[in-house]
Amino acid sequence: MHTDILSPEKDPMGQAISDYYKQGKADKLRVFSSQFDEDEIPVKQLFRPLKEFPILERTAIDMASGKILDVGAGSGCHSLALQQLGKEVCAIDISPLSVKIMQERGVHDVRLINLFNEQFAGSFDTILLLMNGSGIIGKLENMSAFFRKIKYLLAPGGSVLMDSSDLRYLFEEEDGSYLLDLAADYYGEIDFRMKYKQIEGESFDWLYIDYTTLSLYASKNGFRAELIREGNHYDYLVRLTPAP
Ligand code: SAH
Predict the structure, then answer these.
(1) N or C: which end of the chain has fewer CB within 10 A?
(2) How far apart are CA 227 and CA 46, in angstroms?
């Protein structure tokens, strides 16, 4: 698992965020994967305000309390919403370009650091991972490192709020059965690569995980998973709390 930050020459999303903030518009942010057809992330969506948050995000923002950590904060949309609501938040991201924009947009406490960097310490009551926040875990094999890190960062009584989705619908047959190769890697382990203008990012791993699998890993790693709410397309919000 990588523990570094991005260089601006290899940070397509950060450049798109920067352009959109400075010019009010951006080119296409293209997404490639060996598993899917080419796709696009609407850059405007990365700047969504509180009133446009999907229900799972809105629920997480309302539940977040105390000292909050916004992991992979992007343009700062959730951190700004939390500040508007009078909540205390620290935003972290590995994109120097995005971190700069968050500072310019008024996020008070922003840090350019990788969640998995050993230097990153703190004590948080709520840790937020949103917009398929489980993605940052990358692969199932990183699950124990993830739980170790959040255990280290959580204040007593604190918890993680994270959204994810179950990709099994991609393998659903017309008769409702699922065509999954049980010998293959877990079906939610996806590789992505992004491109914006001439800027190409490195390929990275992004994990989508179903609730049952996540619960199993949580209990193996000393955590309790609770399903807070389901979205309308195989997505859900989960709370992870260290088991007593
Ligand atoms: N949460 C934001 C952005 C989601 S995109 C939103 O909902 O709009 C994911 C973000 O996570 C990107 O900005 C990326 O730079 C950042 N990121 C990826 N891996 C990370 C890591 N290991 N530590 C911190 N940030 C990370």
Answers:
(1) C
(2) 25
Closest approach atom of ligand 1 to CA 114: 23
**Ligand 1 centre distance from Cα of residue 175 (Å):** 37
Ligand 1 site, residue 240, Cβ cutoff 6 A: no
Q: Which of 58, 95, 111 to mutate to test the pocket of ligand 1 (most atoms within 8 A of CB)?
A: 95
HEC per residue, 126-187: EEEECCCHHHHHCCHHHHHHHHHHHHHHEEEEEEEEEEEECHHHHHECCCCCECCCCCCCCC
Task: Kindly state the DSSP code that residue 85 receives in the 8-state scheme.
Answer: T
Confidence of residue 178 (pLDDT cuts 50, 70, 90): confident
Task: Choose the residue to mutate in 43, 94, 194 for probing ligand 1, maximizing ligand atoms within 8 Å of C-beta.
Answer: 94
pLDDT of 186 over the 90 cut: yes
Structure tokens at 127: 């840790």
Model confidence, pTM: 0.97
Q: Is 112 near ligand 1, meaning CB less than 6 Å away?
A: no
